[in-house]
Design goal:
Elements: H1 2-27, H2 43-46, E1 49-61, E2 68-84, E3 87-95, E4 106-118, E5 121-129, H3 150-155, E6 170-182, E7 188-197, E8 212-219, E9 225-246, E10 249-270, E11 273-283, E12 302-315, E13 319-329, E14 337-350, E15 353-364, E16 371-382
Antiparallel strand pairs: 1-2, 1-16, 2-3, 3-4, 4-5, 5-6, 6-7, 7-8, 8-9, 9-10, 10-11, 11-12, 12-13, 13-14, 14-15, 15-16
Length: 383
């Protein structure tokens, strides 16, 4: 992790150096009012904000033949946010201690600008969260659990079933979104968002010149309530479909693999009470291995899953109780399902420092011995 943090520091230093150099150049020519040579700081420099967070973890698992317990540096992020006129921008670098194919320990996760002059019609371009599911764009700490639900991880671009490298639900593209239909009090009743993406995950060019189209729409009939639906139509390029024998050897067959998904979502989030449920269905062959492009036909071309959870305050702004049920079916069959029942507590030392404690009973029907237990404790902080 030390090497990881050094790399992150280097990347962040580069971002800050670029910002400072640009600011210095601007200072030579204009001030916040556009007057030349008076040395005032431009507004866009004043609006730059540096922030970040870290997530420290202990986890123990009693899986048959694979017991483990370990302290873990789950996640660290450094963030630059800014505003230039009607545009907001963000650059975010992530470091984890994950190692393996397709999971670099340091990577640029967000780099985008968004035109926000009108809340009814905003345009975002760059690398950012896909417009798919309620849970995907939720902050890892605010989300409140040891991790996103399995179905989100596997079918929303994290450790995706399709085989793309771990992308945190992100891709490169352009999106339009907005909130419309205000009621008598001015609260908007309808949200829409639709994006066009490379379809390959973070920091990756399009491999087949065919873009993914992802969109969502939800209604907000009363304060705190969202009911929505999402769709995803796309493909992955340069996938290994199989081999064939040819004179003198074997030829690898590559091509595109279609990807079609939809999600149904419902949520109540108000006054520290949060309840959310989502169902996702996926059609399209996958690899089942992060960072691999070799199709595993034994997984089938369909998968689905769902989750439902509640987080409620026991002591307002101090102690929350939580419970979650989730299922992910690797091949859309019960014999391939992973089912979990979870409960726990979240304790807030301050608004920027909190501890999560969680117990999970797992029923994994893909294993010879289906049942095992997991405990997880995290200390999360923001700055």
């Amino acid at each position: 992790m030390e090497t990881t943090m050094k790399r992150m520091a280097g990347l962040l230093t580069l971002l800050l150096a670029i910002t400072i150099c640009a600011a210095a150049d601007d200072l030579d020519t204009q001030n916040t009012d556009g007057n030349e040579g008076d040395g005032d700081v431009p507004a866009w420099v004043k609006n730059i904000k540096f922030s970040g967070y870290g997530m420290l973890q202990y986890q123990g698992i009693d899986k048959e033949g694979d017991h483990s317990n370990s302290f873990n540096l789950r996640l660290a992020r450094f963030i630059l946010d800014g505003k230039i006129g009607d545009f907001d921008w963000r650059a975010q670098i992530q470091g984890t201690n994950l190692k393996g194919a397709g999971e670099p320990t340091v990577q640029l996760v967000d780099l985008y600008a968004e035109w926000r002059k009108y809340p009814e019609f905003k345009i975002r371009a760059g690398q950012f969260k896909r417009a798919f599911t309620f849970e995907n764009p939720t902050h890892p700490i605010t989300q409140g659990w040891r991790g996103y639900a399995d179905v989100i991880n596997r079918l929303s671009g994290f450790g995706d079933r399709a085989g793309e490298k771990s992308s945190g639900g992100r891709d490169i593209g352009i999106q339009v979104a907005g909130d419309i239909l205000p009621n008598a009090s001015g609260r908007k009743l309808l949200h829409y968002q639709i994006g066009i993406y490379n379809g390959e995950g973070v920091n990756t060019k399009d491999k087949n010149n065919q873009k993914d189209i992802i969109g969502g729409i939800w209604v907000m009939p009363v304060k705190g309530v969202r009911i929505g639906a999402f769709g995803w139509h796309g493909s992955h390029g340069d996938m290994v479909l199989g081999t064939e024998v040819i004179p003198g050897g074997v030829r690898t067959i590559t091509g595109n693999v279609p990807l079609n998904r939809y999600c149904l979502s419902a949520e109540y989030d108000l006054n520290e009470y949060t309840f959310r449920a989502e169902y996702i269905h996926s059609q399209g062959w996958g690899t089942g291995v992060i960072g691999s492009n070799v199709i595993n036909y034994s997984l089938g071309d369909k998968a689905d899953g769902w989750y439902a959870f509640g987080i409620v305050p026991i002591i307002k702004s101090k102690l929350h109780a939580k419970a979650r049920y989730q299922t992910y079916r690797v091949s859309k069959e019960w014999g391939t399902s992973v089912n979990q029942i979870e409960c726990g507590l979240n304790y807030f030392f301050t608004k920027n420092l909190e501890m999560h404690l969680e117990y999970s009973h797992v029923n994994d029907r893909n294993l010879a011995k289906h049942n095992y237990n997991l405990i997880d404790m995290e200390l999360d902080f923001r700055f």
